[in-house]
Structure formats: structure tokens, C-alpha cells
Amino acid sequence: MNHITLEMIKQSDEIKTFLKLSEQLLEVQGYTEHSFRHVELVSSNAGRILRDLGFGEREVELAMIAGYLHDIGNAVNRVDHAHSGAILAYGILTRMGMSPSESAEIMLAIGNHDEKTGTAVSNISAALILADKSDVHRSRVRNNDFATFDIHDRVNYAVESSNIRVDREKKAAVLELKIDTKICPLMDYFEIFLARMTMCRRAADFLGLNFQLLINHTRLL
Predict the structure, then answer these.
(1) What are the tens digits of pLDDT across the range 126-135?
(2) Which of 17, 162, 199, 204 could bridge across to 211 with cysteines, CB 3.0–4.6 Å?
(3) Residue 149: per-residue pLDDT
(4) 3-state SS class at 135
(5) What is the CATH number of domain 6-219?
(6) Minimal CA–CA distance to 126: which of 208, 69, 44, 65?
(7) With the C-alpha atoms ordered 93, 96, 98, 99, is the resulting torsion angle positive or negative?
(8) Domains of the chain, residue spans
(9) Cα separation, 214 vs 217, whole angstroms
(10) How far apart are CA 138 and CA 152, in angstroms?
């Protein structure tokens, strides 16, 4: 079996094709941005979360690979994209030469990253969830006409900055957001993202952390 690296994943023409198709489908359907920027950020943050908690470098890299691949199922359909993406990822990784055990770890994480059907079931899946659900920002809004914003556009556009960090000593996972409340009342944020924040809390619990939400320097969770 080969030692498959994140860089090898990024160079794969097959993976590039699926990610491009995923972004194309979501753009046509009017979803927020899920481009290479998103998967690069999720990959980086998932790895950083485990590294900051003291996990080994291979587990860190597997989390980064899971983060990079987590949305490829959108190339099939937005519905059940976590499940189709998990199966696609397993097939691609094993064909590339990754061991079944490592490929299955990534499959497990991807298959459980969506709040409708998944939850944290491993260290890698917990890191992926925290990294994915914390990417909320106005740059992800495709609609250029503010007058036609729906609540999803408005909530994302109102977020001027977002950052997820973990504190190993204080046993905390902290999501910090800066929100323009003139654009979006905080209640709208919770209406849209309550399920995601609950998922983040459970992911933090799995890693032995308390989940905290700070909005405009005020702790709300």
C-alpha cells in the first residue's frame, strides 16, 4: 500500500473533476460557494484542530484529506452528498493505493459530516465537522442583488469574519464570529445554524472539549 499524501490528492485529475462538478452543480442550484477555497480551508482547519490537540501527524494528514474530499458527493447530487461522497472517496483512495483501513477512516468522516444524517464518530470526523461548519462568511454568497437575498444569503453576508480554534489546556473549541447585526439579527443566525451548532457541540464533546460560540466578542454558548 502507498503512503497517500494530501499533495497527491490535490494533484489527482479525477478529484479535480469531481470538485469542479460539485461547484458547478451548487452554483446552478443557488447554494453558497463550495469551491476549492472552501475545501482548502476546511482541510487546513481540520488538520490544525487535531494538531493543536496533540494528535499524530498521520491522523492530522488524514483529517486534511477528509476535509479536502468532504464535498465531492455534490458531483452526484446535493441530496445525500455525504453518503455518495464517502463511497466515491473510498473508491478513489483505494485505487490510488491507500490502505483499506485509512480509506475507511476518511469514508467514515465524510459520511457523517452533514447535520441532517451524521454526527461525530471519530477524531477525524469531529475535526471535519468543526472545520466545515465554521466556514460562514459573506464571500460565500453568490447573489449580487441584496434586494433579493433570502435568509441564507443574509446570514452569510452578515458574517464579516469567522474563526475556529481549539484550546488544549482549557479543553475548549471556540467559534468566533463577527456579525453585522444591521444586516442580520442574531436570531436569524440561530434559526439557520442551530442544527450546525448542535453538531459542533457534539463534535467538540467527542474530542473532550467544550464548544463555545462567541459573536461580536460576546459568548452565546
Answers:
(1) 999 999 999 8
(2) 204
(3) 78
(4) coil
(5) 1.10.3210
(6) 208
(7) positive
(8) 6-219
(9) 6
(10) 11
